[in-house]
Amino acid sequence: MKSNFYGNRKSLIAVCFWSIFLFGNRIVCTAANHNEGEFVWYNGKQAITYSVSKSVSPVVTIALDMFTGDMKQVTGVLPQKTHTGNTAIKIVQLDKNRSALKELLKQDVPVDSLMSKKDAFFIKVTESSNKKQLLVVGSDGRGTAYGILELSRLAGVSPWVWWGDVTPIKKNQLTLPADYTTFQNPSVEYRGIFLNDEDWSLQPWSWKNFEPSDTKGRKNGKGVFVLWGFLFLCSYLLLPDMRPL
Asked: With 60 as the cut, is the pLDDT of residue 129 above it?
C-alpha cells in the first residue's frame, strides 16, 4: 500500500470520524445471561442453514448477501438457504409477516416492543422439540438487516473487512450460550454520515488506486456506505459534499 495520502486509506478514515459522532450513535445492547450449555450454529462439517420469511424488504436481501459472504470467509463454506423449519437460523421481518405473531409470542419474543420501535431487532436462541435454533426478528426492513449483520459481528467479522483489509479469522465452530438473547434498537432516529471535501480526498484516491475507469467512484461509494451505513453506524444516509457519487 502506498504511503502517500491518496494511497493510505487510514488517513482518509480520519476525515470522516468527526461526522460519525455528530450524525450517528451506536445501538444499545441488552447483555445476555450465560448459563451452562451452548448452541452450535456452525459445527465445522456442514454449511450454516437459514430460512427467511417469505416477504422481506430489499435491504434484507442485501444484508443476506453480505452475511453469506462473511460466513464464507469465516467457515470456508457458503451458507445454504432452505425452506424447512429445521435450520440453524430463522429470520423474520415482523412488519411484513404479521401471521407469525402468534408463534413468536410463544417463543417469548417481545413483539409489542419490537412493533413500537423503528429499525429494531431481537435475537434469541430458542428450543423446540429438543432442537435449538437462532431466531432473528426485525421490526422492519432495516431492523432485520441490522439483526442479520449482528450475526456477522458475533462470528468475529470486523467492519473493516473491506475498507481496511481485515481478513476474518477462520473458525471450526460457531457457538452462542444456550440462553443468548439481545434486543437492540437505535438511540438516534435519523442516522448517517457526511463526507467532507471528497473531491480532494476520497474521490482522487478512488480513481487513482481503486477504480480508474470511474472518476465518480461509484464502486468505492458503495463500499463506504456498506462500512459506515450498515456494519459500523447502523445508519442509512450517506451525504456527499454537494456532489453525487
From this structure: yes
CB-CB contact of 133 with 90 (8 Å): yes
Backbone angles phi, psi at 54, to 5 degrees: -60, -40
Give burial (CB, 10 Å; 0-12/13-18/19+) of 93.
buried
For residue range 109-126, what is the model confidence (pLDDT) as tens digits? 999 999 999 999 999 999
Type of residue found at 193: I
Amino acid (1-letter code) at residue 11: S
Distances (CA, A) of 193 to 9, 114, 196, 213, 214: 17, 26, 9, 26, 23
Per-residue pLDDT, averaged over 145-165, amounts to: 89
Residue 20 near residue 233 (C-beta atoms within 8 A)? yes
CA distances from 231 to 130, 148, 241 (A): 33, 10, 22
CA dist 43 → 60, 64, 80 (Å): 25, 20, 14
